[in-house]
Fold this protein.
Amino acid sequence: MLTITMKSFAALFVLSILGGCSSSASVQLTGDFPKVLAKPKPLSAAVVFEPSFATYIAQPNAKTVIDMGAAQVRLLRNAFAGLFGRLEFVGSREEITIDNAMVIIPSVREVQVSTPSENYQNVFEVWIKYNLDLESTAGESIDSWFMPAYGKTPDAFMASKSDAIEQAAISALRDAGAKLILDFYRIPSVHNWVIEEQERARQASLQQPDKSEVSP
Amino acid sequence: MSPTSKLIPALFGVFLASCSATTTIDEYRPTGEAIELNVAEQVVILGRRDAGHYETDREFVDCVASKMRGADIGILPEQEFIDAIYPWFEPRTAPKGLSRLKRLMQDPSIKAEVDKRAVRYLVWLDGSTDTLDKSGSMSCAVGPGGGGCFGFAKWDKLSVYEAIIWDLQDLTEKGRVRVDSEGTSYLIGAVAPIPFLSPVKDDACASLGNQLKSFFSITPATQ
């Protein structure tokens, strides 16, 4: 009886060691992202999180799966709040209710992962390549912006590969937020759209009767 | 006492002595005076993470912070500061020089967050610990009658870190400290593997933390 118990224990011990040595990683990104510290412009935008984006699960290679849909939605909600004063988040283009807004449809082009055994450096790396389709509410294309994001994390001794990839992916998502805040209004076509929108808003305010005037 | 029984402790003594790390500290201060820090003010220690092939690891940043905290210096946790002013201290956006810091601090919302947390000084830590050279070999075997490891291995480690202190009030550099720590570790396989590890990174942390502590002079809170 004792022999069987010892054998079972030894088998479990060997299995747990082999499991620990496994090179596959399945990661679900949880947790929140900090609120962005940026003053939004008095402009409107409708961000379309299509189901394929909101539930996106990346499989950069045969041994790695990253469930990042919900996390990237949380991050972009935060980041766009620092860019636009009036925002609407919808699941499809048909649900948009605001006028004179920029319609933003994000999608993931590719996710890449690199581990210390592949890059011969002591870091785990994650690249996320986003694409933002920018349109007017009438459906006219403004631009299609390619937005790469990068994150890395040191190879913590004895830490699991999943934990390291999770940290690198979170770092890449935070980088996407930083890039968005830093570069979005520097896109020439977006800059032109902002000028046109500001001019349209100015013309609209001029056409409205001055309410401060006292009638005779 | 037999010669063998004297030899073994002597051998262990030699190994233990050679496992110590050699640490060199260089510092630069524009003036010889200590940096004044109000008891109500805080210091934040940040790791540089923009280099391609390494990251200043959080463990080292936390270690230096704990050394300084021991001297009653108010330390704001790194992640709390980075999150409070997200995204302006991410690897992509963090200021690399004083001119960029000045531009950032001109933003009223960033300045307000820094003031809200009473952060007076920012200490940038940049560096890493690397294994330079490995030699020797160790082989382990397990059989029905037992197992063991035989052989000898040694490796050299080098820690190089630099700390730069920025004053967030007058937006100037207050000083720099550079620490180089080097040591050799050994692994002896005599049935069981016996490690003699050189505390290279710990020495670098303790030296840097103690040197940074000496930079600051705590003053009473001003009204």
About this structure: The CA atoms of residues 11 and 26 of chain A lie 25 Å apart. The beta strands of chain A are 25-28, 41-48, 57-61, 64-67, 84-90, 102-114, 123-136, 141-154. The first strand of chain A starts at residue 25 and ends at 28. Chain A touches chain B through 23 residues (CB under 8 Å).
